[in-house]
Amino acid sequence: MTPREIKEFNFLQRLIPTKAIEDWMGRREKNFDANKKLIDYARENKFDYLLLGRDDNAPYSQTHNEGRKLVEYGRGLDAKYLTTAGIDEFGLVLLARAVNERAKTSPKIFVKYNWGRGAQTIPGYSDEPIDNSIKAAIRATGATLIDSESRADFILAVNTNPAGETFEANDELNDGKPRQGTRFFVDTVQDYVSGGRKVIVADVAFANGSDNALMEQFKNRGLLFKLQAYAGWNTPTNSSGFALATGILSAHMKDAAVDELLLRRYLDDWAYQANVRQIGAAQLDWIAGDGRYEFLNDKRDSAAETCAALIQNFAKKNLPKFTGNDNIRVNFPWNRMFEAEISFGGRQRNAR
Q1: What is the pTM for the complete model shown?
Q2: What range does the domain containing 113 cover?
Q3: Tens digits of residue pLDDT in 292-321
């Protein structure tokens, strides 16, 4: 550590109550021991496969420190155990693995990053380069990473920022105007689609919502419903793993079902998370009763109605090919605005 870091470390040790640190470390030790026990079970063949996640962390975090130790503890179990960044997407990743095992398939995946830092980007809420997380997710699904796009079953296109930063979707930079790398990435996706390739898009330039500039370009070029899968929600590793898994599962789905899943992602990741959520939060003060962004309480139903109307207007403007954009309903299952459950009525026609 530098002298400045040592000084800061000593200051924080004096500032943070000893009891608080002991309580926190004690809880982490219990969690760490539980994870070791799970690895023991994998070694004893009590599990077919164990996938341990590390979400909401950073390169110099206690989570990363423990993660390195858990990698070492599970050495030799490559076929039965894996730990990687991410968690929320793991259910779908393991579902894709189960489907691949049952079908005795191992789809070939070629990964294409935006130019710049690309594969070496360490995204927000992660402790490792995005390429490490994606390679791990491919392994976990039972798919095969290949370095030849001509032989790939799927192209996984990863929208990173050229300089390697991750921004929040509510950042003023996410204003829909093309940035460095936007047109290059869209051109790349369009070339693949035009060539008849099955393209999966992991939109990780922003956390907790879509890249508005990317989506605007996809809309203008008619690419929204020519993809196999898309995700741009929550942490970047949540998005990349979710997009990969849904893309793999799309091989077992009808076109209409693929389109419906794309529509759900666009209504949630693009309409709500990257745009409507901020507007709805700003209008909370106009609603009578007790409640705020983190605890909606009395404002819950009214906020849901407001956001449903905003999403419906957004859908009519940006998703014109569908007839299923009507009768949009919003629910806040956790009594907060961070995530929304979005449902829609009507039967959308095939957009392909």
Answers
A1: 0.94
A2: 105-252
A3: 999 999 999 999 999 999 999 999 999 876
